Amino acid sequence: MKIKKKLINVLLLTFFFINISNNSFALSTNKIIVTVENQIVSSYELKNKIKTVLFLNNQNINQENIDAFKKQALKQLIDFKLKKNEVQKFNIQVNNNEQVNNFFKNLSSKYQTDTQGIKKIFKDNKVDFDLYFNEIKTEFDWQKLVFQKFGNKINLDEKEINEELSNFIKIQKNFFEYKLAEIEIPLKNNSDDRETIISINKQINEIGFEKTALKYSISTSAMDGGNLGWINSKSLSEEILKILKNMNKGDLSEPIIQTDTATILKLLDKKIINVTETDLDRLRNQIVNNKKNELLNLYSNNYLSKIKNNALIEIK
Question: How far lies 312's CA from each of 61, 216, 302, in Å?
Fold first, then answer.
């Protein structure tokens, strides 16, 4: 049955998962389970995707966690195949492997090893490193494609940025840095949204923030349990900063509603950073980069949605 991506809904995905197996790791052969244009998603890829995310987030690889992440794993694999198609169509490749290498250096450092060491850790945990490497490289290729297509549309007011930074320094001697995690969920802009948010909060209470992010969040941070790392207060919008100032470590924010998404933040930690003159250029660049990234992420999401709406998907 061939259908447009926009017709794939939760019921279809649920039907798909019921029919592949009650135990997703019981499959003894590698099968094609979905085709995405001229790309395929195999049962091996799906199993490896689930194992990779659970492993990287220090989650037990058990049936409960496998079932919780199935739907999100398939969605991410479909997105990956769509991105791969697009970067191949435009013959996009990162100019060098510096970004990819830096990514894996940072990942390796979390395990106090090097790139060869992380490969061995993947192997020891029966996770296919090459598949994960290909996903990461494709993501950087995709980011390059998005920048080529939309980078010239990003115009920031330099004077406004300088004035914003200057005013902030006048009223605040110290900067805060916040360690944050997020869960971003899509909204339909109708009466179902309230029930969706209630359901997400219930899941957070029952299975925890990280597992809920893995299972439901549409943000790329979902693969890391929603973790965003440390973010300087000046890089945040006034709305979010106002919310965080009233939160304590471990608190969750009320849903932050955007046009078609809602985001729940968790404050993992916070600290004061004393600001010196030498910090100003770094802070300014961080503000500029974050504003650019926000716009690029918006273009990226819209671009991917457009591709999905025109993509031919076949459920095997």
Answer: 32, 24, 18
